[in-house]
Amino acid sequence: MKAPAHNNFRLLMIGFCVLAAVYLLLEFSRDYPLDTGDAPMFQDRADTGLAPVYAPGGSGPYDQITARPLFNPDRRPEHSGNPTPVGTAPVTIADAPGPAADLSLSAVILTNDQRIALLQKASERKLIRLSEGESLDGWVVETIQADRVQLRRGEETRVVEIVMKKSAALPPKEAPQKARQITGNRMPPTRLQPAEPAMEASAPVETPPPAPGIDTGAAKTQ
After folding, report:
1. 93-136 pLDDT, tens per residue?
2. Where are the domains of the chain?
3. Residue 185 pLDDT more than 50?
4. What phi and psi values does residue 149 have, to the nearest 5 degrees?
5. How far is Cα 46 from Cα 103, in angstroms, rounded to an integer?
6. Which CATH class is domain 69-161?
7. C-beta atoms surrounding 139 within 10 Å
8. CA distance linking residue 103 with residue 163, whole number of Å
């Protein structure tokens, strides 16, 4: 009687496992739509309060350096669209070309994406900021190197190198003032020398008595 009951329980468990497997298979085979809700998946940075992201443009901090060169006494930025000094008319190639002999190269600024030359005319103290391809008085900046700039005007080419200003020579040191000489009737002081020690008196020399038999002057007087 116990064997049939045990077999029935085993069959019941097998049937339950089969039903569970069929249910799981049906559940996994169904396509459920994703419930995204009303909230957007990606929010704007303006809503989150985070600082907006700006794409890097230009050369970053080098823009301020090139806009306010150290070689300008007033440190005022140049006009962004005009390489010529403020207050002068823009010069193009069509204008009357001027000589490049009066141009001097004061400094060169080289970065990864910029090459800037600071030129100066002999008649002006203002520095002129030029890049490659820009022109001044008919001269086009062809190349900018670390120590020179090559200018071209038609078939004519000119190279302007950096002028290294020598430091002013220091004035020679004044010779030390000579000692004042003694003038007038005033005699210079004499140096006192120590007196030499007195010579010791020599002892009297004793005269030996005359030998017997020698006639002396006393005997003759007799």
Report:
1. 334 445 566 788 888 899 888 899 988 888 888 888 899 999 88
2. 69-161
3. yes
4. -135, 135
5. 52
6. mainly beta
7. 27
8. 11
Contact 79, 121 (CB under 8 A): no
- pLDDT over 70 percentage in the chain: 40
Identify residue 56 by its one-letter amino acid code: P
Q: Which two tokens stand for residue 129?
A: 């900021």
Q: Looking at beta carbons, which pairs linking 196-205 to residues 24 or more positions away fall under 8 Å?
A: none
Phi (first) and psi of residue 86, to 5 degrees: -70, 135
Q: Which of 133, 122, 121 is nearest to 85 (CA)?
A: 121
Handedness of CA 204, 205, 211, 217 (dihedral sign): negative
Local confidence band at 163 (pLDDT 50, 70, 90 cut-offs): confident
Amino acid letter, residue 150: Q
Q: Are the CB atoms for 98 and 137 separated by under 8 Å?
A: yes
DSSP alpha helix (H) spans, the chain:
2-29, 45-48, 62-67, 217-221
pLDDT, the chain, mean: 68
Longest dimension (CA), the chain: 206
Residues 41, 42, 46, 48, CA torsion sign: positive
Question: How many degrees, rounded to 5, is the angle at CA 26 between CA 20 and CA 31?
Answer: 145
HSE of 200, CA atoms in CB hemisphere, 13 A: 3
